[in-house]
User: Which sequence fits this backbone?
């Protein structure tokens, strides 16, 4: 197995392999090309020494040594073309070879010895992602996850985003066809020590992750370009993907485009809008799926029925979805585009959910300032201050204050101001108690959470 290889385009590819048994502090290897024009200039990272360039054989002999970083790029400038190739330092390369050979404990020991810090697992995973071909990447990470819960956790937390970012991407692990995506997910799920992932989450993540950063582009077109068919995929709307597709359509092309997509959906056996709406309103589980059935029959319904049914479908998709995709903010945002003819309460509720979900996504990304701003926006919406016709919603105010207070205390704790963090928790708890005029289970849950976080700092 060539563990480091990639296609450079224009009928050229490269492979790196060691020519002597790797050692933790020094490895001699060769970078071989199908076609290597005379290099005009070669720049290498500090841990990489160019020993020899053989244009006739199309190879560069390289000595890897230990260095401050696990990986770096070797840049090769030729006439009219430049190549940037990711290579490991000697200890990181030794760890990869050890893991692939089934010596995971040795690999972890070497990594700790040369690069031990609190983010070692994330940094090594990132280095492997940029350098290894996919099979070697999975083999390495699966072996390390057997001996390290931290590696297992890092791979699980990053898996959905990892695959979404690889779609239509360059590099040794780029995914250029839908079949390749399915095959790689299957290979991941066959690994013994990696938590299984869902292709539904990956597709939803790909469609929705950009919205968190205030942009959507041609994600749908790019999925179709690699062979994904949105009409034949999940024709009964049992997964999060159709809701994500509709949300993306509403936010990028508008209502007419969304309705065109909906017309291709299988119509349920019961085609009465009224009966399906009643069933959806009474559903206790899978509410978004029930509302999906309603949306499917709105093609001939009045516009307000389409708005209401699709609003409910997207809203409950965001509320009931508990997968790993960063999709909830886009679902709620798309629902806001449908609130025009609906009562004011629908506006307030969905705008609140949009800001709360954004805040939590920013929190997970450790974007503390953006999280605070989103939770503050949610609080203003819940109090009714942002729009004169909005009502004061006690539970939503409590939810927003809990989330905002927790983030503010977290930032203070990160700055090692534990006393101020504890005070922030206490102030927020007092605010929530003032909201609790009548016993309220939900508000009490928020108080219990904050007290637990506060007590963990005492």
Assistant:
């Amino acid at each position: 197995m060539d563990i480091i290889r990639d296609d450079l385009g224009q009928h050229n590819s490269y492979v790196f392999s060691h020519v002597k048994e790797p050692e933790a502090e020094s490895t001699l290897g060769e970078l071989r090309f199908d076609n290597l024009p005379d290099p005009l200039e070669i720049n290498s990272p500090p841990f990489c020494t160019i020993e020899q360039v053989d244009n006739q054989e199309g190879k560069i002999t390289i000595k890897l040594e230990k260095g401050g970083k696990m990986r770096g790029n070797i840049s090769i400038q030729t006439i009219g073309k430049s190549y940037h190739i990711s290579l490991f330092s000697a200890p990181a390369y030794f760890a990869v070879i050890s893991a692939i050979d089934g010596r995971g404990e040795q690999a972890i020991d070497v990594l700790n010895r040369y690069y031990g810090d609190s983010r070692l697992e994330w940094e090594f995973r990132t280095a492997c992602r940029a350098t290894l071909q996919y099979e070697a990447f999975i083999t390495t990470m699966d072996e390390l996850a057997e001996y390290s819960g931290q590696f297992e956790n890092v791979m699980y937390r990053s898996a959905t985003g990892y695959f979404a970012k690889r779609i239509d991407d360059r590099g040794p692990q780029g995914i250029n066809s839908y079949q390749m995506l399915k095959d790689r997910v299957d290979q991941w799920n066959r690994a013994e020590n990696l938590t299984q992932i869902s292709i539904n989450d990956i597709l939803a993540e790909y469609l929705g992750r950009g919205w968190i950063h205030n942009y959507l582009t041609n994600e749908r077109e790019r999925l179709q370009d690699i062979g994904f068919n949105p009409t034949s995929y999940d024709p009964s709307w049992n997964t999060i993907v159709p809701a994500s597709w509709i949300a993306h359509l509403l936010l990028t092309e508008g209502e007419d485009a969304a309705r065109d997509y909906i017309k291709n959906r299988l119509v349920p056996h019961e085609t009465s809008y009224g009966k399906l709406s009643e069933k959806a309103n009474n559903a206790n589980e899978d509410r978004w799926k029930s509302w999906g059935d309603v949306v499917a029959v709105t093609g001939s319904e009045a516009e307000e029925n389409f708005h209401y049914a699709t609003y409910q479908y997207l809203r409950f998709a965001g509320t009931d979805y508990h997968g790993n995709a960063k999709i909830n903010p886009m679902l709620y945002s798309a629902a806001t585009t449908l609130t025009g003819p609906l009562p004011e309460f629908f506006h307030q509720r969905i705008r609140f959910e949009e800001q709360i979900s954004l805040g939590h996504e920013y929190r997970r990304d450790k974007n503390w300032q953006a999280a605070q701003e989103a939770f503050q926006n949610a609080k203003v919406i819940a109090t009714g201050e942002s729009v004169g016709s909005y009502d004061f919603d006690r539970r939503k105010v409590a939810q927003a204050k809990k989330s905002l207070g927790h983030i503010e205390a977290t930032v203070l704790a990160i700055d090692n101001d534990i006393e101020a963090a504890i005070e922030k928790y206490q102030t927020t708890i007092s605010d929530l108690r003032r909201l609790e005029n009548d016993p309220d289970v939900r508000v009490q849950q928020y108080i219990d959470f904050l007290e637990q976080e506060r007590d963990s700092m005492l």
About this structure: The first strand starts at residue 4 and ends at 9.
